[in-house]
Design goal:
The complex is a heterodimer of chains A (182) and B (241). Chain A contains three helices and nine strands. Chain A is mostly beta strands. Chain A has a four-stranded mixed β-sheet with strand order 4-1-8-7, with no helix packed on it. The mean pLDDT of chain A is 95. Chain B has 241 residues and is mainly beta. Chain B has one domain: Protocatechuate 3,4-Dioxygenase, subunit A, CATH 2.60.130.10. Helix content of chain B is 7%, strand content 24%. In chain B, the strands form two sheets. In chain B, strands 2, 3, 4, 5, 8, 9, 10, 11 and 12 form a nine-stranded mixed β-sheet that branches. The radius of gyration of chain B is 19 Å and the shape is globular. The C terminus of chain B is likely disordered. The chains are: A mainly beta (182), B mainly beta (241). The interface between A and B is large, with 79 and 90 residues. The structure holds fe (ii) ion (FE2). Fe (ii) ion binds next to strand 8 of chain B.
């Protein structure tokens, strides 16, 4: 029954900030309640930074995008916890294009290598893009989804930084990131 | 695993990544096909939200940015409907976030310089949770159409942006809602990036006189459908017990 098909997706447009991270749009938040998704960890002790940039076909960082991540806790579990939100979101900075998450490194879930789901919505993206971030210091070859990316699997691996990891998403070109239909 | 997989997404029903008439998609559309992968716990789970996450005026855009005793300018409307999945089941307790331009077609956003004025009493940001029966509702004002840099003379139909969470991240959806009778729907490259007219029609809210409050506020009905779940033996057993 066509009436019970999923709603068609539409782009988030350039003003996605207003609805999802209103403080970044310049809203003074008069009478608006708490922000959602900005803080993932209650205690920074074991936190890592995860820096993400999304480059368009010209290699230019997109500066009007929304990025969400969803990941297991260090024990590999998705069970709700007071200390860790599993879910976070940030916008790509309007000046630099960088998005920074403060999170913890996920543990391995059954049969998979540690990974973070990344979801990207922005102007010019008609159906939000889903990918995964894997880590350079893990045995990713045992992970069936990583392996499914075959020759392009390297596009899913973040780079180590002093305080955590950095990952660049390429929307197009020879280094185009693997995006999933899940 | 406690959850059965979601039904596959019909990628021919959604707009293709590249829609040439929508200029911004040209440098942002991936050129490789999406890689189909099985759903794991990562995609079958997702964040949950509760009333404690929301403020009392989050679902009222007429008032949630207005000074005391004042309200946003423009035709007052209720937007309401049901959050369902493709199996026709209500999807309860899910976060729905909305954003929109004001009655003149101007966004309260640092990057919007359209010459229509801002409304001091309108922010354009709202959110609500679907109820136990999947119903959701918010109050707002009718947004105005606005011009945008794409073709030589492109105007967006009046619309409200929706961000919707489901039970699992694989159901996460961003879309837009349009208004019955708007002549810009046929002219808009973003709307027309959707290949199927039936799919477009499903994004068009209908005037709902039954939910309209006389002498107060008109209502528009907009149902939102998320991906359904595959049937399993386990599920049938549950229904039978
Ligand atoms: Fe818009």
């Amino acid at each position: 029954m066509a009436d019970l098909k999923e709603n068609a997706s539409q782009t988030a447009g350039p003003y996605v900030h207003i609805g999802c991270m209103p403080q970044t749009a310049g809203l003074k938040r008069r009478n608006m309640s708490a922000l959602l998704g900005e803080v993932m960890v209650s205690d920074d002790t074991d936190a890592i930074t995860l820096d993400i940039a999304v480059l368009d076909g010209d290699g230019v960082p997109i500066k009007d995008g929304l990025i969400e991540i969803w990941q297991a806790a260090p024990d590999g579990s998705y069970a709700p916890s007071k200390d860790f939100a599993h879910w976070g979101r940030q916008v790509t900075d309007m000046e630099t294009g960088q998005a920074r998450f403060t999170t913890v490194k996920p543990g391995a879930a059954k049969g998979q290598a540690p990974h973070i789901l990344i979801w990207i919505a922005a102007r010019g993206i008609n159906l939000a893009l889903t990918s995964r971030i894997y880590f350079p210091d893990e045995d990713n070859k045992l992970d069936p989804i990583f392996r499914a990316a075959e020759a392009r699997a390297a596009t899913l691996i973040a780079a180590q930084t002093k305080t955590g990891y950095a990952h660049t998403i390429h929307l197009q070109g020879p280094k185009e990131t693997v995006f999933f239909d899940v | 695993m406690t959850d059965t997989p979601f039904l596959p997404r019909d990628l021919d029903w959604h707009p293709p990544a590249l829609h040439h008439d929508y200029r911004s998609s040209r440098l942002r559309a991936p050129q490789q096909k999406l890689l189909h992968i099985p759903q794991t716990e990562t995609e079958l789970t997702g964040p949950t939200f509760g009333q404690g996450d929301l403020g009392p005026l989050d679902d009222d855009l007429i008032l949630n940015y207005a000074a005391n005793g004042q309200s946003a300018q423009g035709p007052r409307i209720i937007v309401h409907g049901k959050l369902l999945d493709e199996n026709g089941r209500a999807v309860p307790n899910k976060l729905i976030e909305v954003w929109q331009a004001n009655a003149g077609g101007r966004y309260r956003h640092v990057n919007d310089g359209y010459l229509a004025p801002l409304d001091d009493n309108f922010g354009g940001c709202g959110r609500c949770l679907s109820g136990a029966d999947g119903r959701y509702s918010f109050r707002t004002i009718l947004p105005g159409p606005y011009p945008w840099p794409n073709g030589a003379n492109d105007w967006r139909p009046a619309h409200i942006h929706f961000s919707v969470f489901g039970d699992g991240f694989a159901q996460r959806l961003i879309t837009q809602m349009y208004f019955e009778g708007d002549p810009h729907i046929k002219l808009c490259p973003i709307v027309q990036s959707i290949p199927d007219d039936t799919a477009i029609n499903r994004l068009v809210a209908r005037l709902d006189m039954d939910a309209t409050v006389p002498m107060d506020i008109r209502a528009y009905r907009f149902d939102i459908v998320l991906r359904g779940r595959q049937a399993t033996v386990f599920e049938n057993q549950m229904e039978g017990t």
